[in-house]
Amino acid sequence: MAVGDVPPGSGMHRLSVDESVGELVSQLTSDLGQLTRQELALAKAELQVEAKKAGKGAGMLGGAAFAGWMTALFVSLTAMWALDKAMDLIWAALIVAVVWAVVAVVLAAKGRKELQEVNPKPDQTVESLKEDAKWLKTRKS
């Protein structure tokens, strides 16, 4: 059997130059379509994860804003009642104000940390696209 001959009964036939180019173009088109769909799915998945992180951080900052508003409210009430004469009421209002201040600080710190961890760039997709470009270059040569 000569080099390049196809063994009988293998189900394969030797392609002409025109057939092989056509099949290569068809295969390449099919591969690129599939690759594009996979890259879009990967990008979508990565962006959904980052959007959830951003939402969580924004929610915590919203909670911190509310806690800060409550702090201002109770500090104001404490100052108002301090000018009055009810000693027990002053301590109660001050304790509540301090609790709200602690809540505000904790939520703000956690929310800020969450937002700092958000990465809007889909790193896996970018890396995969670089690999795809290398693959296409080797396929062309």
TrEMBL record:
Membrane-spanning parts: 61-83, 89-109
Pfam annotation, one family: Phage_holin_3_6
Keywords on record: Membrane, Transmembrane, Transmembrane helix
Protein name: Superfamily III holin-X
Organism: Kribbella pratensis
